[in-house]
Design a protein that fits this description.
The chain is an alpha+beta fold and 730 residues long. The strands form seven sheets. Strands 2, 5, 6, 7, 8, 9, 11, 12, 13, 16 and 18 form an eleven-stranded antiparallel sheet that branches. A seven-stranded antiparallel sheet has the order 1-3-4-10-17-14-15, with no helix packed on it. A six-stranded mixed sheet has the order 19-28-29-33-30-31. The N terminus is likely disordered. Helices cover 28% and strands 23% of the residues. The longest helix is centred in the middle third of the chain and has 21 residues. It folds into three domains: 257 residues, Distorted Sandwich (Beta-galactosidase, Chain A, domain 5), CATH 2.70.98.10; 202 residues, alpha-1,2-mannosidase (Glutathione S-transferase Yfyf (Class Pi), Chain A, domain 2); 165 residues, GH92 mannosidase fold (2-Layer Sandwich). Helix 9 packs antiparallel against helix 11.
Length: 730
Amino acid sequence: MNKHLLFPFILLLVFFETSVAQQLSEYANPLIGTKGLFLYGRTTPFVTPPFGMTHWTPVTRKSRIAVPLYNYFDTRIRGFRASHKPAMWMGDYGHVTLKPAIGKIKSKALKRTYYFSHCSEKSKPYSYSVSLITQKLSKIKTEMTATARCGMLKFTFPKNEKPAVFIEASELNDSTGWIKINADKKEIIGWNKDRQSSHLGPPLPNFKGYFVIQFNEVFESFGVYEKEVLKQDSTEQTADACGAWVRFAKDTKHVQARVATSFISIEQARENLQKEIADKNFETVADETKQQWNNYLSRLEIEGSKKQRGIFYSAMYHTLLFPRTFSEYGKYYSAFDDKIHTGVSYNDYSLWDTYRAEHPLLILTAPEHVAGMVQSLIQMYEEGGYMPKWPNPTYTGIMIGTHADAVIADAVVKGVKGFDLQKAYEACMKDAMVPSGNDSVNRWADREPFTFIEARAGLYWLKKLGYVPVDKTNESVSNTLEGAYDDFCVAQVARANGKPDDYNLLMKRSKNYVNVYNHATGMMAPRKADGSWYKNTREGFTEGSPWTYLFGVQHDIPGLIDLMGGKENFIKKLNQNFRGVHYIHMNEPGHHYTYLYDYVGQPWRTQYLVNLNRRFLYRNNPDGMDGDDDCGQMSAWYVFSALGFYPVTPGTDVYAIGTPQFAKATIYFEPANREKKFEIIARHVSVRNIYIQAVTLNGKKLAEPFLHHADIINGGTLEFEMGPKPKKSW
């Protein structure tokens, strides 16, 4: 073909590929995981850029711990919130809620909710819109978009009505809020001290969530309220559960609110608003946030059906929400010493969940954020005394282990730079060596009111006995096993700091899992401080049974195989685990279990089980996720497993091979350089062809069902030949 005729076709191809990459956010559906009664994703349809500090969402339920802000089954909307609630089991804090209204301003309007239909609802990572049905059966259309720290809301009101907007400054009856109306500026400012999980952590006298709201229309009238008492024409209120309302002229059709949030000050909120929105219109802000999502989502490109892309990019969206940015242009409020600092900060780490796959995935998909996330954990140690277990936004003591150690070890082993390695070593060593206050007598019950910062529960006893005793500490078996893994992780950080004695000590301690293995029963089991086995064998486990933790030794799988009597016995136990329906994918401790057959010469079983869970537990609809996503971990398992490999042991550079889902998937490591990439090609892959027949890495046969981190980030091609029947020799 004549090269002059070929050139337009090349341009068309480049345009098509670029436009597909740029529109991947259209596949992401924030409503996935919002529908269910109990065992479901319990996600929230957040509008925010990747890692945004403040997330905007419709609210269908009164916010509190263990209640999601939104459930797809609900038929009424309570308002639209700037939220910092990271997951169902945690609390919201520093929030502000807006609610449009028509008609007379009465106290009952404060509690008024609006019917809505999902037919009118459009949810995307960068915007949300819905039509609210009023008592007069007219409609108020609400649209939201957001930047990292700010939001824009656009209300379209019905004709012949006097529109209004309520602002809930403080929700809690025992937490002070303040609000002030500046009618001349068409502005409302305020703050609240709301922290729904405040009883789980230390007091924070200086904590406030600040906001600035600027409207585009003049206020015809206004007032404030305290609880349900309305105060017409008043401009300021300080009280528990307080807020304000503003009314606009009759027949005002469109009202727009620009909302800035801050944890530093009102002045900082204004600065955030100026830097992120300024005079931009709604469409411009939405387009810019959409482009941010497209830029991140296009770092993983797949060849798949529309349905497959919907599942995959919705999972990607969930993995790119947390940890949230917590700094504001060079400064941040620390909830660990209640002071303002300079620097970068992130918060809301669900570490017991996310160390497993979420944080390892971010090393591949958002590497520019990882060093700051690690450094933030170190800062929390410097400012509060320990790294947190699950900050919200300060210590909560929720869940077990000190898995910040795993996040740091994984970053160290995989070559992440840009954080203080010496301080990381200090923080991790304190986790491993210094028991929390009163650890020898405190049982550390789940979600008990705060007394001391909880690091590793039962560390005093573990150092003394080699295990955590069931008669001294709650969740004793799980604490022993997860402490052993954390010791392994701290050992890697010690080695990177040139501390061989600490490395050797901690590697020896990482074998402590053997001390809770009962050879008589072949199970992990609780032991008392006197060394005897506890009669109730189901006692001492976190969120599960002895089966939930039987294979929870991802750092020493060869040692666990030997402990169980060799490969054949290990395989029998694995088979019993899956065939007996003991495996619960809906909770995180077993997320690596499907990959364990790789370690005993039966990778086809891993391929079958990964495909089974991937295919039936992740779906492209609101009830399309089984089990709490918990800041992206369920989603991260799926993303890795769809690509064809999984980080069984964070803190090492090894990935276990599963089975690829797509004919082609590409990881791009540098957004500006699309030439550096890792391609995964699966020939003949289909619903039936799930078994690996052959696999090569850069043209060479892969000797074992494992990859190393360098194999991926150095770029190249992983090529699979797929078929319908298991191949029982690698």
